[in-house]
Amino acid sequence: MATFYHASQASLGVGDTTVVTSTSNSTIVLSILVANRDGSFAADITTSHNDASDVIQNYLAFTIPVPADANVELLSSKYILPSGEKLVAKASSSADLDIAVSYVEV
Fold first, then answer.
1. CA 7, 98, 79 angle in degrees (round to 5)?
2. 19-47: per-residue pLDDT in tens?
3. First to last CA, the chain
4. What predicted TM-score, i.e. pTM, was given to this entire model?
5. Domain residues of the chain, as ranges?
6. What are the phi and psi torsion angles at 24 (to 5°)?
7. Is domain 4-105 annotated with CATH 2.60.120.340?
8. H or E stretch including 35?
9. Environment class of 7 (CB within 10 Å of its CB; exposed 0-12, middle 13-18, buried 19+)
10. Residue 71 and residue 23: Cα distance in Å, rounded?
11. What is the pLDDT of residues 57-90, one digit of tens each?
């Protein structure tokens, strides 16, 4: 059985950004890290698990504040993402937050 390690990064705006789309029924999300590049203001992060039709299945984070010049780890345990489904994120303000997702496809 092959194992593929991946990382996905994105700069977030106020609209939905697809960060990861699963191509395997064994996609395991290991880490979701959000960093605030703004030196003066906090920004909120919202992250959801959406199905292939873009319907929200659940929220992994909902308006979680990320302080200025800081980062927040959103995932304290592994998360399984079924094939064709995705992680979607958005920020409360444009160009302040970056997101990095580490995951494994088995």
1. 45
2. 999 998 889 999 999 999 999 999 999 99
3. 7
4. 0.92
5. 4-105
6. -145, 145
7. yes
8. strand 27-36
9. exposed
10. 28
11. 999 999 999 999 999 999 989 999 999 999 999 9
